[in-house]
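Re: the pair you flagged

First of the two:
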Amino acid sequence: MAHHSSAIKRARQNLKRRARNRHQRSTLRTALKKYRDLLTAQKREEAASEYTSVQKAIDHAVSKGLIHRNAAARYKSRLAAALKKLQAA
């Protein structure tokens, strides 16, 4: 455990930030899983409406620094391609 007051404060801040990051990352993963489940279940309309909320969750994660913007673009591109493929079938 830290002994200096500044190190104690830093440890306290790290705990708060870690909890916040874990919650936001979990929320993002849940949204992605829900969307992918809709794709595998071949539910076109639900997946199309869910895509906007998944896109919003990904953008939110980027703004909070959870994922890199290029990773977010890759996620969105792949999810959109999967939706387009489902709608074409």
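Second of the two:
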Amino acid sequence: MTDIQSGGVVVVTGATRGIGRVAASRFARAGLHVALSGRDESLGREIAQQLRGEGHTAGFFSADITREDQVGALFEWVIETFGRIDFAFNNAGVSGNGRLADLTTEDFDRAMAVNTRGLWLCLRAELRLMSAQRSGSIVNNASVHGLRTVFPGIGAYVASKHAALALTRVAAMEHAAQGVRVNAVAPGPIESDMLAASEATVGGATRWRALIPADRVGRPEEVADVALWLFSDGSAYVNGQVIAIDGGFTAT
């Protein structure tokens, strides 16, 4: 990746599995200092240690992004440990399976708490810090389900991802004058535990492949590389945008 600020600090939420784990490694290899966060402390510390063993600068902080106090503690740790924050990949998310008429209040609230409220809590902290230093680039990991309602049976997830895109656009508009850019990636089906788990509920990769012109599911690296471009100077005039990474699905 060219034109990336080598030595810059990136925060990655949901960094212990799937896209987040791969992205953290990709960012480190691009020369960024990586602050990882997630709820699995043992796994998170193992990943950070592995990255340090490869010669990268990395640390882990366990946080539940639905908790305001824990989000606050996460970003205090980032500043204390790394001194600043240049980039953020807000990746943490959960599924929300069940038809709307059948969802429990608890299931709906969980999807919104992580995918929308948790995203906002992280965004708020990032925007405050980046606006004060008058620079920064934030990438929110949303979903093509925020652009198109693809399958029935995941209504809470769809609603939360539409909200994530709205937060992206508002944040971009409100903070552009402070030198902060906010964009989103909207992955289609990506190799992950979440996609594998969806096989039993909405058809997973099997159902998706019939809808994708590329006739395959994506790889986590393909999402990470777009996020890296959005961090770079090569995307300096890109703000408030949603980039679908979906093998051509949204073009159909």
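Residues 105-133 form the longest helix (29 residues).

-B.
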